[in-house]
Amino acid sequence: DTGVSQDPRHKITKRGQNVTFRCDPISEHNRLYWYRQTLGQGPEFLTYFQNEAQLEKSRLLSDRFSAERPKGSFSTLEIQRTEQGDSAMYLCASSQGILFFFGQGTRLTVV
Amino acid sequence: AQSVTQPDIHITVSEGASLELRCNYSYGATPYLFWYVQSPGQGLQLLLKYFSGDTLVQGIKGFEAEFKRSQSSFNLRKPSVHWSDAAEYFCAVGSPPGSYDKVIFGPGTSLSVIP
Question: Does A49 reach chain B within 8 Å, measured CB to CB?
């Protein structure tokens, strides 16, 4: 499978714990995006990388959130001191232009 | 700023009936427009896209959409709905290449299909 892959698919964590998600984009894609989707809502933009450079962060991305793409390939999204409001589906997408390809997402549940 | 509205939160149609899902966008220039479908627990799948040219675009699974600049709309249609079309549908708007290629999604329309 050469699509966008995300790991893990599901994560349950206790409030206050740190979590890290991984996204492997399509190999030739230089752009990588993170979105968050809560129940009954459309995906909301979080952040965007072109190669290893993080070019924009949404105001939704509080100081507890950090994303990296160290070698311009895979990316990680870390949430520190998780809160119940962080419970959501975290979607990763990659693109070479305007066509986005999404992974299946990581569903985070904070209990 | 770009924005997308989908006026219908939930729609129910009978199998075999026609379908139209509404989408309105706000964007300063000619946008790039998309429709995505998301089945429960799944990622987003691109149904179709409009970049330029013919304002009626064909997509996968028998879907089509029409771009109407005067109405700032990009409604999705299907002449005959199948039970497997039950899913969440998202309209999205993006920037042309050369600018920041962020895609903004609407809130989605949930489609239920009655056998």
Answer: no
